[in-house]
Amino acid sequence: MKKSGSRKKRKDYRKRRLIRKGVSAVLLVFMVLAFVWIRVRESGVSFPAVGPEQKKETEAEPGGEASTEPGGDASSEPPGEMPDEVPDTGSADIFTLEMVPPYSGQAYVDINDDVPFFTEEEMTTEAFHQYWPLDELGRCTGAYACVGPETLPKQERGEIWEIRPTGWNTNRYSDIDGEMLFNRCHLIGHLLTGQDANERNLITGTRYMNVEGMLPFEESVVRYVEGTGHHVMYRVRPYFDGDNLVCTGVLMEARSVEDPLVQFCAFCYNVQPGFEIDYATGDNHRKE
């Protein structure tokens, strides 16, 4: 009887010991979690919830586009120069929409025999990028840069879905690449200066203009800069007819500084084949 009672006491002791160990382990986990939570709160890190709206607004738009790539904090790239007034530049008083022939099936047309309007005084090897102020209707007016190795982005692109350029209308069509007729088009693409959610640098542009019109010019400049280490004067201006909120197209100019290898002056049409756009409002629909 004594042995049986002794065994029972030992079992009870082991049981209590295991319970104490379990309770200690749980308490330790809670203490670690509490410590981590306090450190996170002190550091100011937040974890925003991603709801349907955020997911809906994230669309892949190469060459002037929202990105689905991870990382790429939009605020970590230098913002560039933000002048208070639109500078007096070469193309401002020379080029007009009357110089552009009607769209005839090509994404862009050469202007001024493909010779940009840069003056010799504008040519420089001092890298910079600037984004001109919005006009009284909130429309972009232009972006200007000396693109070089110094301006090329050093990190992945960030999100731009929070920017709503004038005329923004997010109608979706299954037969358009990415399903979005409109993209948030960079005037100067991220791949040239690392700009992301900069309202002075994003316009409402068709997928067609973004990818077929603007992107090939942007990529040609990047290839040249990466291959030579040289600089390219680069300017993009959107042109609006009257008070329209969506631009008719953009004039893209480029000229390399150290040699004559890069030169273009092209107007990219802000159209989407097979669709009609109300440029005053951004409303759009498929052609009947």
Kindly summarize this structure in a few lines.
The chain is of the alpha+beta class and 288 residues long. 26% of the residues lie in helices and 18% in strands. The chain folds into two domains: 1-47; 54-286, Extracellular Endonuclease, Chain A (3-Layer(aba) Sandwich), CATH 3.40.570.
Order of helices and strands: HHEEEEHEHEEEEE
Mean pLDDT level: 82
Helix/strand-derived class?
alpha+beta
Shape: globular
Kindly identify the CATH topology of the largest domain: Extracellular Endonuclease, Chain A
Strand content: 15-25%
For the record, the CATH class of the largest domain is Alpha Beta
Number of domains: 2
Intertermini distance: 99 Å
CATH architecture label of the largest domain: 3-Layer(aba) Sandwich
Contiguous uncertain segments of 5+ residues:
42-78
Instruction: List the total number of helices.
Output: 4
Query: How many strand segments?
Result: 10
Identify the notable features of this structure and list them briefly.
single chain, Extracellular Endonuclease, Chain A, 2 domains, 288 residues, two-stranded antiparallel sheet
Structure explained in plain terms:
- There is one protein chain.
- It is built from four helices and ten strands, in the order ααββββαβαβββββ.
- It is an alpha+beta fold.
- The strands form three sheets. The chain has a six-stranded antiparallel sheet, with helices on one face.
- It is globular and about 95 Å long.
- The model is unreliable at 42-78 (pLDDT under 50).
Task: Please write out the topology.
Elements: H1 2-43, H2 52-57, E1 108-110, E2 128-131, E3 143-147, E4 182-186, H3 190-193, E5 202-206, H4 207-228, E6 232-239, E7 249-256, E8 263-269, E9 275-277, E10 284-286
Antiparallel strand pairs: 1-8, 2-3, 3-6, 4-5, 6-7, 7-8, 9-10
